[in-house]
Amino acid sequence: MSRSGHTTMGELLEVAAEVTGGRAELRWLDPEAVLAAGIRPWTQLPVWLPPGPAHEFLHAGDVSRAHAAGLRTRPVRETIADTWSWLGSLSSTPRQADGPPVGLDPAVEAAVLAAAT
User: Fold this and answer.
1) DSSP per-residue codes, 49-66
2) pTM higher than the cut 0.85
3) Burial class of residue 20 in the structure, from the number of CB atoms within 10 Å of its CB (0-12 exposed, 13-18 middle, 19+ buried)
4) How far apart are CA 21 and CA 18, in angstroms?
5) What's the mean per-residue pLDDT of the chain?
6) Is residue 39 packed enough to be buried (19+ CB in 10 Å), middle (13-18) or exposed (0-12)?
């Protein structure tokens, strides 16, 4: 629960690629193109919601009471580095056994990106 403006999606993704040694090339598409391709927000594109009530709730919700009670929001780089370290310490990646697979199929990603160019 961070205050609005704590970070951006771009910063989150850029820092994640840097910290993890990823080679991702970030490409930005209109939300309509993503939704028209049938890509499920949050599941196939983790941490992404299209504009609307859920997006507003996530990114502009009032967290003042939590901060007044002492919540400390860490820098995004610190959070990503610690999470990456924790994941590296596990014998396998945690998954929700009864949930859908997380992430976007590479073939779907390639098709959507090709259509957008």
Assistant:
1) --SSHHHHHHHH---HHH
2) no
3) middle
4) 5
5) 88
6) buried
